[in-house]
Amino acid sequence: MKILVINCGSSSLKYQFIDMDGEKLLASGLVERIGIEGSQIKHEKAGMDKYIVKEDMSDHKAAITYVLDALKHDTYGVIQNVKEIDAVGHRVVHAGEKYASSVLIDKDVLQALKDCIPLAPLHNPPNIIGIESMQELLPDVKMVAVFDTAFHQTMEPAEYIYPLEYSYYEKYGIRRYGFHGTSHRYVSKRVSDMMGKDIKDLKIITCHLGNGSSIAAVQNGKSVATSMGFTPLEGLAMGTRCGDIDPAIVTFLMEKENLSVAEMDNALNKKSGVLGISGVSSDFRDIEQAAEQGNKRASLALDIFNNRVKKYIAAYAAMMGGVDVVVFTAGIGENSASNREAICQNMEFLGVEFDAEANKVRGEEKLISKASSKVKVYIVPTNEELMIARDTLEIVK
Ligand code: ADP
């Protein structure tokens, strides 16, 4: 069975086309600047150069037409007819409390996603547009929605209810939802396979450290805690997001700087995090370079980022009554040896004996704790698309 995985952002669309017989990636690509001047598609057939088309794509439906054309291309294509697409898996950010696992998309599911728009005003609308456009272009193909929030639906109320007036939860659904669920689910399962253990017998802490970062505690194969909350703003310090701060800072700053709600939201989401602290960049490569050249605020940004990751690891170990394995994944988690080392320093008290030599790698599955370490530490590159394709296969089968 061949499955197309789609991830629609507000002006972008990422896709992978996977042959589930052997889980082979046949082609992948990215459409950028949808609805903006300068749209383009970068398509890559496995093992070949990129095929790039620069054409105006006024909306997601136009973008998907280019994706289907690229998949059928004489040289760079991998199918002759769209009938060879057996199913489509869509990444969807928010399912509220409605879905705890992936679902076959029908009218009710689409309505539920629309009902969740107030919870994810920036993310759910493009996801929905992607689904509807795809349905118009491939009306006979089964489609599955895979949610970022679903994996964390196993959290207990004691973990997801905020200490606010309870009526806000009832009225507006204000609670912790958590995000990156597909990634936390993939790496926690993968690490248990690598360790030759049943996931049900493990206490796992997964650190998804990328542009957006979150940590999850996974016990008996279920998410029991995660650092992102009502929105993807809570928790760690991120590229441009502030993560945990005293909420009183928000009202204080709005008053002092005379900021509107939108301006404050923009400050917290786009101008904070390691960019805000360092003033250099949101990209950890730039910040590491600046820190090496003696930029104090760049060093400070890295210290703040790493301290928070460490704090969450210890907190989640305490919550689960211990931890068997810590996993690093996503852009920073997979690639930055220096961040991993800083995070795992002085963790012997917890049972972590870090192997600095083994850690000197990038982007590969690897054990980076010593053989004698009670708590194992692994790098596991994430693969959300494969997880979406697996769920899609499972459901349409
Ligand atoms: P997204 O959340 O957009 O999927 P990624 O998981 O791709 O993000 O992570 C992107 C981030 O990973 C970049 O902003 C960069 O800070 C970081 N990164 C990538 N490569 C490296 C590297 N070699 N060293 C340090 N950081 C890196």
The low-confidence parts are: none
Largest sheet descriptor: 8 strands, mixed
Number of strands: 14
Beta-strand percentage range: 15-25%
Question: Which features would summarize this protein structure in a list?
Answer:
14 helices; binds adenosine-5'-diphosphate; globular; alpha/beta; eight-stranded mixed sheet; 397 residues
Summarize the SSE layout with pairings.
Layout: E1 2-8, E2 13-19, E3 24-32, E4 40-45, E5 50-54, H1 60-71, E6 87-92, E7 103-104, H2 107-115, H3 124-137, E8 142-147, H4 157-160, H5 166-172, H6 181-194, E9 203-209, E10 213-219, E11 222-226, H7 248-256, H8 261-270, H9 273-278, H10 284-292, H11 296-320, E12 325-329, H12 330-335, H13 337-344, E13 366-367, E14 376-379, H14 384-396
Parallel strand pairs: 1-6, 6-8, 9-12, 12-14
Antiparallel strand pairs: 1-2, 2-3, 3-4, 4-5, 7-8, 9-10, 10-11, 13-14
This protein binds adenosine-5'-diphosphate (ADP).
Question: Care to describe what's here?
Answer:
This protein has 397 residues and is of the alpha/beta class. Helices cover 37% and strands 20% of the residues. The chain contains 14 helices and 14 strands. 44% of the residues are buried. The chain binds adenosine-5'-diphosphate (ADP).
Short characterization:
With 397 residues, this protein is an alpha/beta fold. The protein has helices spanning 60-71, 107-115, 124-137, 157-160, 166-172, 181-194, 248-256, 261-270, 273-278, 284-292, 296-320, 330-335, 337-344, 384-396; strands at 2-8, 13-19, 24-32, 40-45, 50-54, 87-92, 103-104, 142-147, 203-209, 213-219, 222-226, 325-329, 366-367, 376-379. It is built from 14 helices and 14 strands.
